[in-house]
Amino acid sequence: MRTPEEYSSDLKKMKPNIYVGGEKVNRDDSRIKPGINVMSVTFDLAQDPAWDGLITATSSLTDKQINRFTYLPQNPYDLMQKQKMIRLLAQRVGGCIQRCMGYDALIALSVATKEIDEKYDTEYNQRFIKYLEHYQERDLTAAGAQTDMKGDRTKRPSEQLDPDAYVHVVDVRDDGIIVRGAKISITMAACADEIIVLPTRALTEQDRDYAVAFAIPADWDRVHLVTRPVWLRERKSIKAPFCEYGVSDSMVIFDNVFIPKEKVFMCGEWDFGRRLALLFANSHRHSYSGCKPAVSDILCGATALVAEANNIERIAHVREKLSAFAGGAELSYAAGIASALYGSKTSSGTFFPNPIYVNVGRRLMGETIYHEFNMLAEVAGGLSVTLPFEEEFISEETRAYMDKYIVRNPKFSPEDSHLIWRLVENLVASPVSAWYQIAGVHGGGSPIMETITLSAEYDYESKKSIAKYLAGITSALDQSADLDLNPSM
Amino acid sequence: MRTPEEYSSDLKKMKPNIYVGGEKVNRDDSRIKPGINVMSVTFDLAQDPAWDGLITATSSLTDKQINRFTYLPQNPYDLMQKQKMIRLLAQRVGGCIQRCMGYDALIALSVATKEIDEKYDTEYNQRFIKYLEHYQERDLTAAGAQTDMKGDRTKRPSEQLDPDAYVHVVDVRDDGIIVRGAKISITMAACADEIIVLPTRALTEQDRDYAVAFAIPADWDRVHLVTRPVWLRERKSIKAPFCEYGVSDSMVIFDNVFIPKEKVFMCGEWDFGRRLALLFANSHRHSYSGCKPAVSDILCGATALVAEANNIERIAHVREKLSAFAGGAELSYAAGIASALYGSKTSSGTFFPNPIYVNVGRRLMGETIYHEFNMLAEVAGGLSVTLPFEEEFISEETRAYMDKYIVRNPKFSPEDSHLIWRLVENLVASPVSAWYQIAGVHGGGSPIMETITLSAEYDYESKKSIAKYLAGITSALDQSADLDLNPSM
Amino acid sequence: MRTPEEYSSDLKKMKPNIYVGGEKVNRDDSRIKPGINVMSVTFDLAQDPAWDGLITATSSLTDKQINRFTYLPQNPYDLMQKQKMIRLLAQRVGGCIQRCMGYDALIALSVATKEIDEKYDTEYNQRFIKYLEHYQERDLTAAGAQTDMKGDRTKRPSEQLDPDAYVHVVDVRDDGIIVRGAKISITMAACADEIIVLPTRALTEQDRDYAVAFAIPADWDRVHLVTRPVWLRERKSIKAPFCEYGVSDSMVIFDNVFIPKEKVFMCGEWDFGRRLALLFANSHRHSYSGCKPAVSDILCGATALVAEANNIERIAHVREKLSAFAGGAELSYAAGIASALYGSKTSSGTFFPNPIYVNVGRRLMGETIYHEFNMLAEVAGGLSVTLPFEEEFISEETRAYMDKYIVRNPKFSPEDSHLIWRLVENLVASPVSAWYQIAGVHGGGSPIMETITLSAEYDYESKKSIAKYLAGITSALDQSADLDLNPSM
Amino acid sequence: MRTPEEYSSDLKKMKPNIYVGGEKVNRDDSRIKPGINVMSVTFDLAQDPAWDGLITATSSLTDKQINRFTYLPQNPYDLMQKQKMIRLLAQRVGGCIQRCMGYDALIALSVATKEIDEKYDTEYNQRFIKYLEHYQERDLTAAGAQTDMKGDRTKRPSEQLDPDAYVHVVDVRDDGIIVRGAKISITMAACADEIIVLPTRALTEQDRDYAVAFAIPADWDRVHLVTRPVWLRERKSIKAPFCEYGVSDSMVIFDNVFIPKEKVFMCGEWDFGRRLALLFANSHRHSYSGCKPAVSDILCGATALVAEANNIERIAHVREKLSAFAGGAELSYAAGIASALYGSKTSSGTFFPNPIYVNVGRRLMGETIYHEFNMLAEVAGGLSVTLPFEEEFISEETRAYMDKYIVRNPKFSPEDSHLIWRLVENLVASPVSAWYQIAGVHGGGSPIMETITLSAEYDYESKKSIAKYLAGITSALDQSADLDLNPSM
Predict the structure, then answer these.
(1) Is the pLDDT of residue C475 over 80?
(2) How far does the CA of residue A317 sit from the closest CA of chain C (Å)?
(3) Confidence (pLDDT) at B262
(4) Is D183 helix (H, G, I), strand (E, B) or coil?
């Protein structure tokens, strides 16, 4: 397993293909750094014996100790450990731990390549396993690149005015394929060793060229990352872990890129488009059952802390708001646990979470994230967005005023009061706020996407059978015997 | 295990002490019958091999096969089986299966009697175990009677103007105790063999006389059940399982009742008042993680069915509403699963569900039950409450009109259309509707009670530690090492 | 103006054509009576000088003093008086005052007949005015019958398998027309002198036969009312105004009914189908800005009262719930006021409320009605549905127990405590509860209908212009001058 | 009336007492400029004949034409014009028009000074009128400074550890008073000519020194503005009105400031503390009935526009979201209209809005603001926060990619598509987003404050009377005659 230093040193060696603010930058640019700091935690703690067995695992391929972010879950316990690891790491970095994107892409490919092979007698799974061994060995990180630019949303890929609205195969050669298009909103692509590309939706036969999955190094030839980092106003004097961490998203442009055959994991099998897209989405929604509770934990903790700073911790509406965070966090965490327990073994050997539970859990948090910010802002008060800049707390002319007035609950010193308000400001009134709000809605699929998944996957017919039985509709009476014993009835 | 016939025959033998509508009635009164029908299902299916191991279990006391409603859970799997059994039975009877009330009282007493003994060197647990062996052997049913009349809510039991506002001990004799007071809203007391009394709240030393728990036969001397049954308008011609089932609640009056010593399980140990009250509440909230999803299942199925009858099943807002039922049902079911997995072994050997998860799950459903009825009513339309009486569908003068106009989606016959609308009417516009709405809010404790429990039990301090760590509050930095690995962080 | 006695005496003279519970009944049937009691209040108070100018008005046709329920609004103040009258009367009868249905049908016809005449040179308005003079003179009441049985909701009237799914013209004769079909969920038809029929939706040229509006006496030949009354469990001893009032809905069947020419107000003008349907709907939604606040007032008052009876009136969550009632009631009342102020004079002279405001106001209450019941039930507690029957409070055997235990707040006597709980039970756990819940959702159009109306009528384009202007989209820059000064921007 | 140029030239002449980012800056600092641009619109349009009578008015003091932001409302129409003006101006500047803060302080003082004089025979009103004549003549702007630092929220001003937690009088001299303390979150103080100080809460006799109100120039001696401006990332090439506007908030520090007698409008009359605080709050909540609908209008327009850019404008859930904006905007606008119509003439002659309606309207928007951002973000998609920086759309290396991929709906050019997404980003993922979210919750008082006001002011007793009457509680029967005819029953 790599150390954090090896990881960032590897990044530094990569070819610059990242564009930020009109410049081409290296992977040690200060605006990319906060994201690298997040990823580093996953390397750092893997060295820490306290986290042994949680952030590390024994490879099902090689029996070696590996980072869990490169490990294929084999049973419910593995999924629960994944969920737990993500919640704990997300608490540590103040939010998105980022590395699960590539992890979920690996999980999805492990299942789908096997299933495609079973139908078409292809050799994708073998290629993939070889790739994964290399990935585990090198302790790599990857961005999972799924969302296409999409163009006109009412049209399928093959119907678009611009055929590049979705990434697609433009040429097939003996040694590989040529692809073109762009993936957007690809979190952590700028901090990743690799990029793994997956289809984003169900496809028809006409969309055959859009049925493509592959992996490549993130600095591969003719791949361009147009990157938008999010970072906090830099602290001048008062330091805080929260400020060390950040994130960036990239538009990943494939401008006639050659993908060598051994890195191609799907090519033309349009009937598996929906399957692979959903495998990734559902695995990623399972990851959210770890990170979303952590986001609630952080907002809950900040709310409780600022309530204490305002000395209103015992007021009824504050207690109620705090318990709403608890409700949100634990219901979605419970959904993750249920998805593990009622998950299933796929033909590939990978153990996959129950899709119903990952969707109801992810949706809940997607629906409530803005409300969670609302609750923190309501308890904190207007000061959360009108807090004078840090410089005012340093400057000779204003410092005494700041120290005097920042204290509300005298049990906190001026410095601690300032640290609390600064954290609250960072949480609710910084570029990071909008990122967490919108990622909370859209990351892994917005509530509307989970509703669509549920409309397709939830067994409404069995519910109707119950109603028919109770209504006395005769033809249903015999069905009563079959009232399904499946727990997700 | 008793047959349904043995059960109702036993009831018939009981002394009449039930008052309904100004009359003293026997336990074969037609208004009590629908509740007995519900209970009978728990006896009936226990005879059915298909339900073996689900509705039956091997006694931890005697190794005999017993009905699961009399069995003390020993491990997470037992809790999951309890939850599953309740969901399936509740689907079968169209809602509350009722027998879990007494079951949860048994579970609570199994734990509390042991803990009291450990502190006070009493012999309650031994008495209780003896009682339970008899209970299992006889395959009994019991009402758990917890909620007192309460009087002035701002005062503790011992501060009330009327000391009988809470059930209390008025005399202690060598062979037993005398109690007085009334318990209200006691579901199924009129169909139960036994009544098990538990304290309803935290107590102080002054409330010592109110710290009392015991069991007695439901027709015991000087015990009066003032009962309010809920039943549906009787069907004249079209029969439906839903109409066979119903429920009743009783005010259970103890008018200087003698309780023999061997049936007294707490007497004066005021410091265990809160513990026993919460053990029952939390065990019962665990039961709700089975029955509440079933109520959602039924409402969901009826909504889907009436949407089909209206031929609007594919309309976006209908799909969204259906998926909201799915979300509610599965999130609360998942909370039950998580509570089992993160439950704990008590000193008594009983395995007890995690209190956080049972509370977040129960609260969710308590908050959404009215909205679920709203959704069904919205999809069904005004006809759900303006549907002409069944007699109009029979009478010569009007029948042809009814048959002609009741059909909306021609794929349903007039009779099936009528059955569907009649079920919907029974669900949303009958005495049963209000019962399910209000039981949905209050049964097992209203949302406000779960919020209070969470305020007391959820670890907000650990959340604050996360916030302090991220804020950079130095004293918390060392705490970072301790960021709790407990999954319900 | 008629007295209540004249009104019910007139009803008694009518031909029996009402079917309830398999019987044909007269208009003095005890199950119809509660609805008649409601209507009587509108006659009674019109005799009371205190209500002069509110429940009475000076006819714009004849300058005579008439009941406001027969008066065409001429200006904003008239609309405000209508709204105020309805709120006050609804408080008096505990909910729906019922007489506005026919009133809104008159208002809609006054406008539409004029507009049809203007386009087609017909003489509907003249016929209508003549009818209205008679109606005012006789101080009549009418049911507005709009909602058809509808059949398959995905098909237009002319596409239905059964052409009678919507009321339609089957023959046109010199002296009138023959109509067939059924209207459902027609509130108060059983207590009305007249029935006024209007189309229920937009129509195409193929639906020409469905473009029909007319008025007839409610006991007209070949008209059958299949009626479902809602009434409360009769009180034995404790009387309360709330129990005197009730409601019924009818399926109104037209079995080849002859309508004389002078009572036909639309016949074949399909292009006015949508207009007339919406005029009625919007006028009726304006009426809801009076009655819906009253329903909130009643539920609010009952919640405050039962909170006092529970002695929890000062608890934070109770205060918050009470203020939620205030918010709902006053926002929808305010919407009515705004609709009056921004209403418009139609070509007929009738002053018509602004459609945007009536729709946002009505929708708000339709969305929150179940939640309002939820709040009352939550504050009241489980006793609201488990309250023993009144007979238990009378019977010698149980009366002392009831009197003892029903008191929670000692400031209320047993009798007043009982009256409070009985009212609460009547409100949340009686047949009336479901009626108010479902009428609250669907009466005058469900929230989904108001959303559809808003989608069609609200000026989203002007909002887009604002966004384009702020975005700097050049073509919009000149539009900046036009940023609409219309107050409902 | 001043021109925009005169206004900013006046500002430039002021003494620098503003601190931003560790520096003392002048009132032409680029970070303050966006706020000045907002204020300038109120001067600019007052010169435009199209806005005559809306943004201008005839002074009730001098009969001169003045800017409406300096005018005392005399009747309901004036309040409606105020509301309309604010909505239209807020649409124009993309949100908060800012100048109403001082305006509402003037309105509040006009009423309170009169009432204090009436009780204490003081001469505050005369002083105030003189000040107002000067204010109207000079066409001034003022920040209303109400919110104190507050210290420990569980303690009254006189109980605080630091007596300066609330602004208070430290010395009374013949020619004036000396005050100390700090007001926070004072919007637009850095762009104002004047600062008007008001008390923030109810006071007791012990808090006498905290009962103080006065006005002074914003650059007055020993007054320091520690200012936090909010501004957008500056545009390099694509310009948009939205980017020209911004806001700043100041902590306004009074370090032993001398206030000349003639500018003191309250000094020691603690029993008017609550009254004056509420007069300002309620007048300001009335202003929100203009600006909050405008914020909804802007978010609604942006949502509709980006839906069009995504070509999903006709999708059901989008239509529903759009109509939710309409509902929020028009309900709160209607509340403003009702508050005008049911307002009252105060003894000072100023016409004051009805407090119930301003509170229900303001609260609605405070409760929904985060949800409105949620809806826009949900419809826009993740791109709203991952949009590459503007520089990437300019740079030679990336421009072609950006232009190619930014277009989704081909009816928009790349430039217009970019402008739309940039506006959306500015709205949901910029410093301005958090400002509007949190100001939406807290500006003018958070929902909890409106609930508290309603708890004190709404007539719950009259609602209880209705319930008592309907319940049949005899003592209430006679009250039935009094069922209040007040429209806000």
Answers:
(1) no
(2) 8
(3) 98
(4) strand
Q: Is D219 on the interface with A (CB under 8 A)?
A: no
CA distance D133 to D110: 12
| pTM, two decimal places | 0.96
Sort out which chain B residues have CB atoms less than 8 A from C164's CB and list them. Answer: 404-405
Taking each helix axis as running N to C, give the angle between helix A355-380 and helix A316-341, from 0 to 180 degrees, rounded to the nearest 10: 160
Chains in contact with chain C (at least 3 beta-carbon pairs closer than 8 A): A, B, D
Mean pLDDT in residue range C328-355: 98
CB-CB under 8 Å, C319 with D423 = no
Residue of B nearest to C381 (CA): B442
Separation between Cα atoms, residue C325 and residue C338, nearest integer Å: 20
Query: Any idea how long chain A is?
Result: 489
Query: Rounded distance, CA B244 to CA B4, Å?
Result: 15
**SS3 for A75?**
coil
C-beta atoms surrounding D449 within 10 Å: 17
Query: What confidence tens digit (pLDDT) does each residue in B40-55 have?
Result: 999 999 999 999 999 9
At B217 the three-state DSSP class reads strand
User: Has residue A49 got a pLDDT over 50?
Assistant: yes
Are the Cβ atoms of C20 and B389 closer than 8 angstroms? Answer: yes
- Closest Cβ–Cβ partner in C337, C471, C480 for D240: C471
Q: What is the pLDDT of residue C83?
A: 98
Rounded mean pLDDT of A137-151? 97
Kindly determine whether residue D360 and residue C238, on different chains, have CB atoms separated by under 8 Å: no
Whole-number average pLDDT of chain C: 95
Print burial letters for C90-120: b (CB count within 10 Å at least 16), e (below 16).
Answer: bbbbbbbbbbbbbbbbbbbbbbbbbbbbeee
Q: Residues near B472 by Cβ (< 8 Å), separated by ≥ 6?
A: A238, A239, A240, A241, A242, A243, A419, A423
pLDDT digits (tens, 9 = 90+) for A206-247: 999 999 999 999 999 999 999 999 988 889 999 999 999 999
Alpha-carbon distance of D448 to D435, in angstroms, equals 19
What is the predicted pLDDT for the residue at A486? 44
Of the candidates D117, D81, D146, the residue with the CA atom closest to the CA atom of residue D279: D146
C51 band by pLDDT with thresholds 50, 70 and 90: very high
> A314: nearest CA in chain C?
C316
Using DSSP, state whether D459 is helix, strand or coil: coil
Q: Binning pLDDT at 50, 70 and 90, where does residue D85 land? A: very high
Contacts of A373 in chain D (CB under 8 A): 370, 437
Residue with tokens 């000692």: C410
Contact D442 A381 (CB under 8 A): yes
Query: In the predicted model, what is the mean pLDDT of chain B?
Result: 95
pLDDT (tens digit per residue) in B344-388: 999 999 999 999 999 999 999 999 999 999 999 999 999 999 999
Q: Are A183 and A252 in contact (CB under 8 A)?
A: yes
- Give A-chain residues touching D391 at CB under 8 angstroms: 21-23
CB contact under 8 A, C397 and B24: yes
Give the gap in angstroms from C-alpha D319 to the nearest C-alpha of chain A.
14
B341: Cβ–Cβ under 8 A, 6 or more apart, which residues?
A: A337, A341, B76, B354
Cα–Cα separations (whole angstroms), residue C246 to C188, C228, C274: 10, 11, 32
**B314 in contact with chain D, both atoms CB, cutoff 8 A:** no
**Minimal-distance CA residue of chain B relative to C369:** B374
B-C Cβ pairs (cutoff 8 Å, strict): 225
Contacts with D438 (C-beta within 8 Å, 6 or more apart), sequence order: A377, A382, A384, A385, A428, A429
Q: Enumerate the residues of chain B whose CB falls inside 8 A of the CB of residue D316.
A: 315-317
Q: Do A473 and B84 touch (CB under 8 A)?
A: no
A21 to chain D, any CB pair closer than 8 A? The answer is: yes
Residues in chain D: 489
